[in-house]
Amino acid sequence: MGRIVTVAVCTLNQWAMDFEGNFKKILESIKDAKAQGATFRSGPELEITGYNCEDHFFESDTILHSWEVLAALLKSSICEDILVDVGMPVMHRNVTYNCRVAFLNRRIVLIRPKMQLCDTHMYRESRWFSAWTKEKTVEDYLLPDIITQITNQRFVQIGDAVITTRDTCIGFEICEELWHPSSNNIPMSLDGVEIITNASGSIFTVRKSYIIADLINAATQKCGGCYMYNNYRGCDGSRMYFSGTSSITLNGNILKRGKQFSLKDVEVNVATFDLEDIRTYRNSMRSRTHTGAKSKPYPRVIIDFSLSYDNDNYKLTTEPIDNNLFDNETISLTSKKTNIIYHTPEEEISMAPAAWMWDYLRRSCQGGFFLPLSGGIDSSSTACLIYSMCQMIVDAINDGDKQVLADVQKIVGDFNYIPNDPKQLCNTLLITCYMATENSSQDTKKRAAELAADIGSFHHSIVIDIAVTAVLKIFQQVTNLVPRFRAHGGSPRENLALQNVQARLRMVIAYLFAQLMLWVRGRPGGLLVLGSSNVDEALRGYFTKYDCSSADINPIGGISKNDLIKFLHYFSNKNNFNSLKKILDAPPTAELEPLQAGKVAQLDEVDMGMTYNELSIYGKLRKNKCAGPFTMFCKLLPHWNHCTPKEVADKVKHFYRCYAINRHKMTILTPSCHIENYTPDDNRTDHRQFLYNHTWKWQFDAIDEQVKKINEGDTNNMKNKKTGPGIPPKPKPSNFSNTKIPGVVV
């Protein structure tokens, strides 16, 4: 019996309900794993169906087609002589479970259901699945006929069990089980399970990547063993972007780690390690061995198969990325430096939405993007993300990715086209348009044109006043009234209506151009319209319903204004785009009200009555910290000591009034790439009503009462300061004594 084992983890870019495409990528990953010498291959959660099938999981067809894909895998010669586990939904006794199905040489070994479901943030797993709650228990599962005909098995075990081979023991976790306080990897490791695989569907949020690595490192450092973490990467048809970074970790050290951002559909990482390293590591921790001796055993499914080969004890093993025993230049564990790449938030923002848009573009069969480019921070950020996408495409093609090249050629309708410059590709895929009215300044027009020149987009500047005038004439014909801007003596209602008609007409014109501009350029197809509303403005409701924020997709809809500003600084320095420096220096403005002496008189933060910094704090307290108006006031008061209690109260009230009045706008938010957890998108992450009593009377009364108490307390303190410190009263005799109640000092 050998001791050197090679295992493979897989990062797949699956597409929900695309059984044919998902099957091909799973098969490709198995073929690649075998080619690299692996004898055990694992993959992401629900990889056969794709993760985000959502209510399709209620359909019996989804389960049927999953078994059909599994049958095709079982019959494939590619899957012979390698232990494989794949993810799919399985119905057992009329209950649907999220399962791993392990198979070897045309026989199913074990069905292992998920034991902890995730219902946090974007996740709603308990809507479709039930958790397997019978710890260390298995039951007989009746296999469907299409499987029995291949495996000659009528029943297989389903439940919380592990697999014992001739040389080691393998256990399973599924995504949330790693995050749970009582992770399954602990009792499994105590029972001698040496290899634990985790099939995950972990989504990207900014500043998250190191957390997963820390969880895995901590688990294997404390318990020892090999941990195989598998994850998706890309957009599988929803607002999520899966963050990749599949890894193999041994005894607290990462041996292999996949990329976080890439356009590659299939990435397989393998590592070779010595099983004896696990055994000696665990045996040296005496408290662990004593606890393991008392552990309750798992049911074991025994198979006549070995992950290692005889007489292979001298095979070269994979050394840890950051702790290579044989490399004198290896960085010490105590050093803050690392060979593992952790991207900065600005780098993450430059790549995650870009890769998400690429998946959406190639799978929607459209010919590119149309972007209303205003010359402000938001639309400029969207334009830069398209340029970043083009950079990633060109890099992937230069690295020999044939699938990316084929997708580009299909999009542009030219199968001889080979892009070699991001700027030229951006000109092919992106049309930008500055839509001016009489309220637009020459400064913003110039900034938009300069940025378009920097990134290479196909750019137009148009004037839409004729359309605005035509719509207003219809109103005038019916009412014989002429609405006026506030600057011209109009009421707030008139002022807002005149702003909204400009904004909404831009949306109508954007879709007209998106449908016809490729016809103008002599290419087939249409364009996807891009929105540019950030997460803070959505939270405040600072946008017009059905304006340019209404689009096909919005790549920045999950990003805060502050992060967008930092991203543009990073992107400007990286690409030497001077146009971005001017955009960053300009104050944010909607440019929907009349100019004064040719200059912008309308500023976003003045319109909103709050700063973007304040908005970001409100959003995190409201969503992430689950704070209502009263709790938000209490939490802000000690931090905002530059404000009086009444000023803090007024700020909180103003935010919640605006939030309540505009909450209905959240119901029509354009789908965006999920970046921040405090997004107010009510479709997926923020389930709250959209009709509020905007007076919040009870809640605001509670805040007012608290302010009153604080002010009264301050007044009393001032009185005490004037009269000097008081003499404490003489204490009254106690009714208790130490003799009656021993141990109590009176």
UniProtKB/TrEMBL annotation:
Keyword NAD in annotation: yes
Top EC class, one word: ligase
Catalytic activity: deamido-NAD(+) + L-glutamine + ATP + H2O = L-glutamate + AMP + diphosphate + NAD(+) + H(+)
Pathway: Cofactor biosynthesis; NAD(+) biosynthesis; NAD(+) from deamido-NAD(+) (L-Gln route): step 1/1
EC nos: 6.3.5.1
One GO cellular component term: cytoplasm
Any single Pfam family the record assigns to this protein: NAD_synthase
CDD domains reported in the protein's UniProt record: GAT_Gln-NAD-synth, NAD_synthase
GO molecular function: ATP binding; glutaminase activity; NAD+ synthase (glutamine-hydrolyzing) activity
Stretches the record annotates as Disordered: 712-746
Keyword Transmembrane helix: no
CN hydrolase domain location: 5-275
Keyword list, A-Z: ATP-binding, Ligase, NAD, Nucleotide-binding
Protein's GO biological process: NAD+ biosynthetic process
Signal peptide start and end residues: none
NCBIfam families in UniProt: nadE
Family: In the C-terminal section; belongs to the NAD synthetase family.
Protein name: Glutamine-dependent NAD(+) synthetase
Organism: Aphidius gifuensis
